[in-house]
User: Which sequence fits this backbone?
């Protein structure tokens, strides 16, 4: 795992990618810092500057994640990694650790901004701390999505575009959720659509009817049991369900200065799920 | 060392490997031979654990590649058709990375990298960026990477493709020298290479093994008893009259004549060995026989015979005409040579 980590890091710094990524963040945060803090003399760095820059993740994150696996496949170096005595999980973790490490280095550079503020005004350091922690967790979650997308294609550009669109989608999920009708039957209908989607996915990946049928029975059974146990659970259910995926909402608790353990757990499980999907996606290619 | 049993690999509805069986003994250099798309690379990719088989088992050095992938992969050094190189790394940093991947301890890493570089003679290019190396040197770096950790088994997928003739000779010599310490599986569609380097040949066609043996035995097995070449001292007319009187000679054709020695090709209507008999017939007529031998098929001809699907069905009872097959084989070899130069 350490070998993969070191190789990735050296790869980032021998090419332009690491510098481009870091420079991108510094420029974006710098512009907002200039606008909020310098021109408008506002010292709430974590509450104002960091949330405003989040939308730029959609452009900056794919820069480093697009190549993670797509490049390996294109250059055929995945043959070296997958035939070496090292598990796919370790390969994925090594690579993921490298991107998060690059992000940490970037965040270290960004801490210069509140330090500059510190000389001219009063900075609320605990809020800055939670803000950066949230910023880090949000970035890591989006990088996990980007990594997963990178395993789906050989083409880096395709990987980058899909990642960017997906990141934007995750950002706007809460706006989408607000427009859902709140009645229980709509929630049930939506869950049914999800179950059908899962059934189709099962069929496409296994080409057998049985697994998708089992998934369908379990899914619809769970919906029915849920309805009989607590019908009120489905009130606003669709909105709740979609909101669960809204990674940006969770970040606001951090930028407001709260250290919310459930949000930390949420981000970690979000990362875990996407890294798991990444491992499965790489494994699946070997079975096809 | 390697046991492959009933290996099947399907890509969707396409069956790339259809129940392939093979056994590779320790210390052998085995050549996997087959036309493009026969399933050579797929088989190698399954043995090395790069892709999974649809069914069947692969045992590498006593370890099942599916059940104990780590132990099995540790025993293999793999050079795929396109060497898996990180173009932005230097030769030495790349090899150090491979050594770390393969679990060589940090203490042994420098000496292991140095050894691998020495074996493939790239020590003088150690500090060069891989993307700046010529194709031949890139191939060597790939081979050095396969040698790292001194694995008992080396699997080399078309190791000489795209190299210039002198590099081809060098790589072949190198592979031969590896025999002492390693079991080598080598795939190729260049027949001369396989017959020169390998001591055992497995011919794959359409996803199954169609023949396996030593190059010499393959040639013997698939040659025809019924085709005989004779060199006789005498004139054509008297030789013709003698041959016309022999009831088991179906056809004969004079090939050449020099200094009174006539070379004649015979087609017999029997598979029995008639060499002695033919000798005595001409001896009785006081015509000296300088040579009488069965017409041997070259590896090219065996290969063509086994891999040309139309003829493969009738191979046992209707042999292809030796001369014709030979010219076809030459064409194929020429094609290969041309493609090498182009690449």
Assistant:
């Amino acid at each position: 795992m350490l070998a993969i980590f070191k190789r990735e890091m050296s790869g980032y710094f021998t090419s332009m990618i690491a510098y481009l990524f870091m420079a991108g963040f510094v420029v974006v945060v710098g512009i907002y810092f200039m606008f909020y803090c310098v021109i408008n003399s506002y010292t709430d760095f974590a509450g104002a500057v960091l949330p405003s820059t989040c939308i730029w993740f959609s452009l900056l994150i794919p820069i480093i994640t697009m190549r993670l696996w797509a490049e390996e496949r294109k250059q055929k170096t995945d043959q070296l990694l997958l035939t070496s005595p090292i598990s796919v999980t370790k390969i994925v973790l090594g690579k993921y650790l490298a991107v998060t490490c690059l992000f940490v280095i970037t965040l270290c550079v960004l801490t210069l901004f509140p330090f500059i503020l510190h000389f001219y005004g009063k900075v609320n350091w605990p809020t800055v701390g939670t803000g950066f922690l949230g910023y880090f967790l949000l970035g890591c979650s989006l990088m996990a999505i980007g990594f997963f997308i990178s395993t789906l294609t050989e083409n880096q550009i395709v990987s980058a575009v899909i990642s960017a669109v997906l990141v934007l989608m995750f950002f706007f999920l809460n706006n989408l959720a607000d427009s859902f009708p709140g009645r229980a039957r709509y929630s049930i209908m939506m869950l049914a659509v999800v179950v059908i989607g899962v059934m189709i996915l099962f069929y496409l990946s296994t080409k057998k009817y049985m697994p998708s049928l089992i998934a369908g029975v379990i899914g619809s059974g769970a919906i029915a049991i849920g309805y009989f146990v607590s019908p009120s659970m489905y009130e606003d259910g669709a909105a709740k369900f979609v909101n669960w995926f809204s990674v940006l909402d969770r970040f606001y608790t951090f930028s407001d200065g709260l250290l919310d353990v459930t949000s930390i757990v949420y981000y970690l499980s979000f990362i875990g799920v996407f890294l798991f999907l990444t491992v499965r996606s790489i494994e699946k290619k070997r079975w096809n | 060392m390697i046991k492959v049993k009933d290996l099947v690999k399907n890509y969707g509805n396409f069956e790339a490997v259809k129940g392939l069986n093979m056994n590779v003994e320790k210390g052998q250099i085995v050549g996997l031979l087959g036309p493009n798309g026969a399933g050579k690379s797929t088989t190698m990719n399954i043995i090395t654990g790069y892709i999974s088989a649809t069914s069947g088992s692969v045992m590498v050095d006593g370890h099942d590649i599916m059940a104990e992938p780590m132990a099995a992969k540790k025993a293999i050094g793999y050079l795929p058709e396109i060497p898996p190189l990180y173009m932005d790394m230097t030769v030495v940093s790349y090899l150090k990375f491979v050594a770390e991947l393969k679990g060589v301890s940090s203490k042994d890493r420098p000496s292991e990298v140095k050894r691998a570089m020495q074996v493939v003679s790239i020590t003088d290019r150690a500090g060069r960026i891989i993307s700046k190396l010529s194709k031949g040197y890139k191939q060597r770096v790939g081979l050095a990477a396969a040698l790292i950790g001194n694995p008992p088994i080396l699997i080399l997928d078309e190791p000489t493709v795209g190299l210039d003739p002198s590099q081809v000779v060098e790589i072949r010599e190198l592979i031969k020298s590896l025999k002492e310490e390693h079991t080598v599986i080598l795939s190729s569609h260049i027949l001369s290479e396989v017959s020169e380097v390998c001591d055992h040949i497995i011919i794959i066609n359409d996803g199954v093994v169609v023949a396996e043996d030593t190059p010499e035995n393959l040639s013997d097995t698939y040659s025809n008893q019924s085709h005989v070449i004779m060199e006789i001292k005498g004139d054509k007319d008297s030789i013709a009259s003698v041959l016309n009187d022999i009831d088991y000679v179906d056809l004969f054709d004079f090939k050449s004549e020099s200094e009174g020695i006539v070379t004649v090709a015979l087609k017999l209507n029997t598979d029995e060995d008639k060499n002695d008999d033919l000798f005595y017939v001409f001896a009785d007529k006081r015509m000296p026989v300088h040579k009488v031998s069965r017409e041997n098929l070259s590896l090219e001809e065996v290969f063509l015979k086994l891999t040309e699907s139309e003829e493969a069905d009738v191979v046992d009872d209707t042999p292809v005409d030796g001369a014709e097959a030979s010219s076809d084989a030459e064409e194929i070899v020429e094609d290969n040579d041309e493609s090498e130069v182009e690449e």
Q: What stands out?
A: The mean pLDDT of chain A is 87. Chain A touches chain B through 25 residues (CB under 8 Å).
